[in-house]
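FORM 7B: Structural annotation worksheet

SECTION A. Query
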Amino acid sequence: MQHFHRHRRLRRNAAIRSMVQEFQLHLTDLIYPIFVVEGEQIKQEIPSMPGINHFSIDQLQDEIQQVMDLGIPAIMVFGVPNEKDERGSQADHENGIVQQAIRYIKKQFPSLYVIADTCLCQYTSHGHCGVVENGEIVNDSSLERLVETAISQARAGADMIAPSNMMDGFVAAIRAGLDQAGFEQIPILSYAVKYASSYYGPFRDAAHSAPQFGDRRTYQMNPANRREAMREATSDMMEGADLLMVKPGLAYLDILYQLRERFDLPIVAYNVSGEYSMVKAAAQNGWLNEKEIVLETLTGFKRAGADLILTYHAKEVARWLREE
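SECTION B. Predicted structure
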């Protein structure tokens, strides 16, 4: 009989399969997003994101304690203010919702690593990620507001700044601003490759951040472009980014892989709201096994090159990993 390779020898039972497994999910890979809102006694499920809630600060204790008990090392804080205006004044306010939340979390849970999402869209009345003049999102004026926001978040106690606005030069501006303000030790997780994606729908529901006119295609990337992603990531690396993010993750695994091959910085995949909600909806209808598909998806991010994964599934994944 002609010789052939018996690859199945290394799949024969669970022991050998686990021994030769190339990529493994770990608790330390996970970052959990949390939405904080103004007010009191608020713990309200987001309709399009089953299992994910809006929390007022007085309701954060139990949620953060769960995160700590599960061994999840980091959270990312998103704020939803009551007041919005043209310039997003609440974004850098000393008593803004994110600043208050960060101070509370770091006081109650000092060992938890807190990442601040740094953008303007939740805070502006027009819903765009920058300053608007004559119907246009103006790049350089937006940088000033983003720097002010990043510094205020660092002052509140954020361990890392994660700018998500896709303005040109945003990493360089924020790095210089943080350094000048005495926060040279605070790293920047750049949303380096952020596409103008339809997968963000539930998040905009959660953050109340849908644009009031136009769309975000003049600053977020065209989903059809790959080479442009490398240019964006290269710029951010040269400007001082400490980590690079690809957002969304699932439809852009090729981009994630290319970043991993080209850059030696840590790479983060954002398992975004639309990806989360699709799985939740299908699981609720009994169309798929939620645990198996989530673990398969997140392992796919790891295989493509992600070092860290920002995911709304983080608490569930942490429980599943502990069971194993």
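SECTION C. Observations
The first helix runs from residue 14 to 19. The mean pLDDT is 92.

SECTION D. Sign-off
Analyst initials: ____
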